[in-house]
């Protein structure tokens, strides 16, 4: 069956541009997580949705980062006025249960390069 | 504050059993321990999860001592395709969900 998909897979942006990263979770999955993974590092938690409710956004690095999941399925991570330090792989994961304790299924990630 | 500590890298040969130990000295009472595998240019893939003692599934075993301050992922008879980065993480219950803290991971290199 279809897994978690993310688009675009690669994005090159000029410093100061806005970008939008899309995540299509597995159908019916309640929980959705966004992570940021810098080169050679483990993923770092950004934010979490339970259906359409954003229950935690404590990991978002700055107010330039914004995430939404308006209908409880597809989610978008938006980064405004991108900076070079935003260059990383952005991973999306979904899980069937409400609290994310069940298996989290990860997408392939979007690799963002800010020049 | 890092929640987990793992060796940076390990080498092994095909057919050997590999044990990767992770320390999580500050683990809380309700935290779960989960292991993920990641290949280059892919998202992490769930391997196994446990709370205490021993858990086994079709690909790995997870050993957790009574004090839960460490855990060991055991991969039986590794093959070249097991070359990847392995992450130990703890899930911290926060309200009605869990936050997961990934460490820097252990790069396992399986040689022929």
What is the H-and-E element order of chain B?
EEEEEEEEEE
Radius of gyration of chain A over all CA atoms, rounded: 13 Å
Main sheet makeup of chain B: 6 strands, mixed
Rg on CA atoms of chain B, Å: 14 Å
**Spans of at least 5 consecutive residues with low confidence of chain B:** none
Average of the residue pLDDT scores of chain A: 93
- Ranges of chain A where pLDDT stays below 50 over 5 or more residues in a row are none
Strand elements of chain B, count:
10
Distance between the termini of chain B: 38 Å
Main structural class of chain A: mainly beta
Question: Which strand-content bin applies to the residues of chain B?
Answer: over 45%
Shape of chain B: globular
Name a few traits of the molecule.
heterodimer; A: 115 residues; mainly beta; four-stranded antiparallel beta sheet; 0% helix; B: 112 residues; 10 strands
Concise synopsis of the structure shown:
The complex is a heterodimer of chains A (115) and B (112). Chain A has no helices and 11 strands.
What can you see in these coordinates?
- The complex is a heterodimer of chains A (115) and B (112).
- In chain A, 0% of the residues lie in helices and 48% in strands.
- Chain A is built from no helices and 11 strands.
- The relative contact order of chain A is 0.33.
- Chain A is mainly beta.
- In chain A, strands 2, 4, 5, 6, 9, 10 and 11 form a 7-stranded mixed β-sheet that branches. In chain A, strands 1-3-8-7 form a 4-stranded antiparallel β-sheet, with no helix packed on it.
- Chain B is mainly beta.
- In chain B, strands 1, 3, 4, 8, 9 and 10 form a 6-stranded mixed β-sheet that branches. A 4-stranded antiparallel β-sheet of chain B has the order 2-7-6-5, with no helix packed on it.
- The interface between A and B is medium-sized, with 27 and 24 residues.
């Amino acid at each position: 069956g279809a897994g978690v998909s993310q688009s675009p897979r690669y994005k090159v942006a000029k410093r100061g541009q806005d970008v939008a990263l899309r995540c299509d979770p597995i159908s019916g999955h309640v929980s959705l997580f966004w992570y940021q993974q810098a080169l050679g590092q483990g993923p770092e938690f950004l934010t979490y949705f339970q259906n359409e409710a954003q229950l935690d956004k404590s990991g978002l690095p700055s107010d330039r980062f914004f995430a939404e999941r308006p209908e409880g399925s597809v989610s978008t991570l938006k980064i405004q006025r991108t900076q070079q330090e935003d260059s990383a792989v952005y991973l999306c994961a979904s899980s069937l249960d409400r609290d994310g304790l069940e298996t989290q299924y990860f997408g392939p990630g979007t690799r963002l390069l800010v020049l | 504050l890092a929640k987990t500590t793992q060796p940076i890298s390990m080498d092994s040969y095909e057919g050997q059993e590999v044990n990767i130990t992770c320390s999580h000295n500050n683990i809380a009472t309700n935290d779960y321990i989960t292991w993920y595998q990641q290949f280059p240019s892919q998202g992490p893939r769930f391997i196994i999860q446990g709370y205490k003692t021993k858990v086994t599934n079709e690909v790995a075993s997870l050993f957790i001592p009574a004090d839960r301050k460490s855990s060991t992922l055991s991969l039986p008879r590794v093959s070249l395709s097991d070359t990847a980065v392995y992450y130990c993480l703890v899930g911290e219950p926060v309200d009605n969900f869990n936050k997961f803290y990934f460490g820097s991971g252990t790069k396992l290199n399986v040689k022929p």
